[in-house]
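Protein data sheet
==================
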Amino acid sequence: MSGTKLFRLFSFIIIICSTINVVEANDLKEDFSRPQSIPFPASNPYTVEKAALGKMLFFDPRLSRNRNMSCATCHNPSFGWEDATQTATGSQNTRLDRHSPTIINAAWGERFFWDGRAGSLEEQAKGPIESDVEMNLPLEEAVARLKQVPRYNDWFSRVFGSEGISGDTIAKAIATYERTIVSGQAPFDRWVNGDEQAISNVAKRGFDTFVGKGKCASCHTGWNFTDQKFYDIGLSGEDEGRYVLTDKPTDKFAFKTPSLRNIGQRAPYMHDGRFKDLKSAIRHYVSGGISRASLSEKMMPVVLTESDISDIEQFLLSLTGTDSAVSLPLLPY
């Protein structure tokens, strides 16, 4: 074969390979494309008034026994809808065992809390209000308290009609508001949509490592970067996670895969807030975790360099969106 023909053959192979890589990259990007609308359940459809009422309740300390805590105490919009402390602080300054999970993109959730004990956002909304170590206010007392507020009576009548104020309508309003809390458009999203300048080359390498040899996307999947499942990732400690609920040996030390959206705002990390920064969290996965019977089969040592870890960190930081400022509501009186 002549040199000219050989050159043309090599050029053709390079073009074909490049085309395949572009197609594969575009297909991969589509797996992480944002949805176009927020899903609301038929049993609790969205209305503007219901979300507005839910926002008032979310920020209202009157839903706690001592009138000194609200949902926003642990789910602060300034800290990625978490609270920036290692573990949450509950009633009477009680230090809790777990870090406050974010409520960002909760509309797409399947089960809630780190151990998945709530099957809906409505069920989740009731939990902290009644928990004796959190807001510590039985729902019947919360209902009686709100009924003493004339304008809350007006709001509940407007939104729920004759059903008025009840434990269920309180939960429905809060859950509706929580479903509207969606991470804003992030640099990563602009890159997915075709803007090659939206993220750095370092972040692009980090994405390649994240979905490739790092194997991070085996659990952190889809646009919200979570498969909604529960795994033992080999962390030390006595908290047995989902096992306490299910009594299944495979659920020992298992906790929910968190979303990675706005992750740069949400330190510290893990269910117990043990890691202060993203690199520390990534290094744990690289190590493969503690070897034990319940350890997820997805957990195994991964060969990554410090440069790889830095690249993944930069990719993760590109998932933080430009969110609108959250204004405090005027509470009914």
User: Anything to note?
Assistant: The longest strand covers residues 230-231.
